[in-house]
Amino acid sequence: MEHRLLGKSGLAVSKLCLGTMTFGNTTNEKDSIDMIHRFLDRGGNFLDTADVYVQGKSEEIVGKAIKDRRSEVVLATKVRFQTGKDFNSAGLSRKHIMDGVDASLKRLNTDYIDLYQVHVWDEFTPVEETLRVLDDLVSSGKVRYIGCSNFLAWQLMKSLCYSDFNKFVRYISIQPQYSLVSMEMDREVLPLCIEENVGVMPWAAIGSGFLSGKYSKGLQPTEGRLHKAMGESSWENRNTEKNWKILHTVMEIAEQRGAKPSQVALNWLLDKKGITSPILGANTLDQFEENMGTLEWKLTEDEWNKLDEVSALVDEYPNRFIDKFRRTLNV
């Protein structure tokens, strides 16, 4: 599998990242471990989990799976969400991060975390407190690199500036929701990541299963992830006229190429400027194998452009205004 540098670092990660949110829940432990081993055997090295996935069970399973292969793995996990009953068991304070990293290291059965990510912005904790403790963790050897997830552009830029000014380690990556049916990051976050050389690891890369092709217009699902999902991955957010047009294009290309719709969606992401390593999720080994088949072929330029056009955001202010008065150089 091809590898890419993660942001402004020398850390090489596989072009697909294996997500483990389902491990210990919809994916049993045996299949989860098997999935990780198959991924590593095919040249993948990038695994992503979080302290809140299945109340820590996901981290425990990952720890068991990589016990004898730790040096092969770029291991990523996250901290921020509620892990206990009191107020301090959430957030990005020094206390919660210090407690969180030790708990994750124990569950993962390892001495260090390659990429430690803050799961979402914390409005209560000063950014300087968060970045200082993350810098301390890198200095201590418990963490090697840091990243963020679900940040607005100003939150990421403020963090990068604070790190640079104080000579702290900076976020080398961001993990946002991004797919053909979730293009909001194109407004500001993705251009910022390209400008500042921040790696991008999209979650919900096939729209929480919407782009797998198993859903039909006008038929609300009674099972599967979209049936019970809330928030960003809800049926309400997926069931739009634009998204059905996108899915129609995906299905059309898949049929012409003899491929799976999910492979089309992932292939588009792999060739998107600024995207480092889309997160591959699967409930079953069959789903895993189907998604890994993405690496066996590539979209043509015309196919890629067709998908890019149908999924593009409406041109809004201030981008519309900026583009109107963009300067050009006649040489």
TrEMBL record:
Annotated protein name in UniProt: Aldo/keto reductase
Protein's organism: Chengkuizengella marina
Entry-linked SUPFAM superfamilies: NAD(P)-linked oxidoreductase
Domain of life: Bacteria
TM regions (residue ranges): none
Signal peptide bounds: none
UniProt domain NADP-dependent oxidoreductase: residue ranges: 15-311
Keyword set, alphabetical order: Oxidoreductase
MF terms in GO: oxidoreductase activity
One annotated Gene Ontology cellular component of this protein: cytosol
